Amino acid sequence: MSLETASHTQSIDSLDVRVIPPPQKHPTIMAKFEALLPGTSFTLINDHDPKPLHYQFSAECAGRFEWEYVERGPEVWRVRIGKV
Hints:
By secondary structure, this protein is α+β, with helices and mostly antiparallel strands. It has two helices and four strands.
């Protein structure tokens, strides 16, 4: 289910990882996701397409997350990540 069709899902805030050192990005994002309540989300802001992060979510959080591109570059990517 996409976040657009999940009327109960609300974006609670955003996380701009462009200012976070690369080794800390994924752990920071995953901690943010784990802290979400079911039915809530945040918007990830990045300077590149976060495909590797999506692969990590698919491996570690299968069936527990929603992923929706809001903006696809070329300079800024925004992805709404929700907890099912």
